[in-house]
Amino acid sequence: MSKRARILDFNFVLAVPDAMATARWWVDEMGFGGLQDLDGWVFVARERFMIMLGSCPDAIPVSNLGDHQYFGYIRLDDLDAYFAEISGNAVDFIKHPIDEPWGMREFAVRTPDGHRVMFGQEIATD
């Protein structure tokens, strides 16, 4: 029987008009760190999760993508603590924390570029 490969972590890759400006927002408002500027690409991270931002000023504006503005779903171990951490910052919340019928507590934000991202935590069951 062959060995099955495991996914060790994951990263998101986003085209944005100005990678450094978007990276600054992730660091200053969303609590990320590890900012690395790599000649047109800027990386930010939190724990083992990384967002790789590419400067693409000629890309289709995110506002033209409709429902495809969503780029990711990030699972947390303490959604309410993270919400409290960032709620006083310049963050555009498009959905505040709510328990959903599919067993997740979630909130959503819109980045300055218009991308939407969901944050979720599995609701504990007794």
UniProtKB/TrEMBL annotation:
It comes from the Bacteria. PROSITE patterns: VOC. This is VOC family protein. InterPro entries: Glyas_Bleomycin-R_OHBP_Dase, Glyas_Fos-R_dOase_dom, VOC_core. SUPFAM superfamilies: Glyoxalase/Bleomycin resistance protein/Dihydroxybiphenyl dioxygenase (SSF54593). Residues 6-122 form the VOC domain. It comes from Erythrobacter mangrovi. Pfam families: Glyoxalase (PF00903).
